[in-house]
Each structure stands twice: as structure tokens, then as C-alpha cells.
Amino acid sequence: MNQTSIQHMVIFNLKHEQGSAAAEQFLNDGERLLTSIPVVKAFSVFKQVSVKNDYDYGFSMVFDSQEDYETYNAHPVHVDFVENRWIPEVDRFLEIDFKKR
Predict the structure, then answer these.
(1) Which residues form the Stress-response A/B barrel domain (predicted)?
(2) Which end of the chain has less Cβ packing within 10 Å, N or C?
């Protein structure tokens, strides 16, 4: 990751029971769909193991530039995922974007 790169992370809870087939399907579909967007780099899916916060899952990805990040946000696959999966299935979330200092 260089100084123009953006580390985009979102931690979230699903409306589905943690570890359920529906939750696993959401995580798998999210990875499959979002990694199909060419500007997405270093995509990872995480399951929370700490008792220090009450979020269950996380997605993390890197964009080479602000332009790539904006391309991702406007990409039809991302827009469709947000509208048809994220909004109906995510209970709550926290989004964080970092650049190296």
C-alpha cells in the first residue's frame, strides 16, 4: 500500500444469525461480487473474534487511488450489491477509510 492508496474497511452485523447458512452466503456473495470489480485489490473477509467490540464481520479492500475508490462506489456491481443485499441484510455497520500518513 502506497501513500495514494486507500484501505477501505467496513465492519458489520447481519440480520442473519451469526454463522448461519444465510450469513455465510452473504459473505461469500460479497467476496465474489465485489472482487469482480477490477479496481478492488487485496479483498479480505473477516469474522470477529475479540470481545472488545460487538461487530461480527468485516470486509477490507485496497484501492490504488481516490479515483479507483470513486470508480468502485459508482460501479454497477457495487451499487446493486448495496441496494439488493447490503441494505436488506445488514443490521448495522461502521465504515473506515485510511491512507498512509
Answers:
(1) 6-98
(2) C
Separation between Cα atoms, residue 77 and residue 33, nearest integer Å: 7
> Please, which residues have CB within 8 angstroms of residue 59's CB and are 6 or more apart in sequence?
9, 10, 12, 30, 31, 34, 43, 44, 45, 46
pTM exceeds cut of 0.85: yes
- At 23-64, the pLDDT tens digits run 999 999 999 999 999 999 999 999 999 999 999 999 999 999
Q: Which CATH architecture has domain 6-98?
A: 2-Layer Sandwich (3.30)
Judging by DSSP bridges, how do beta strands 57-63 and 41-47 pair with one another? antiparallel
* 3-state percent breakdown (helix, strand, coil) of the chain, nearest 5: 35, 30, 30
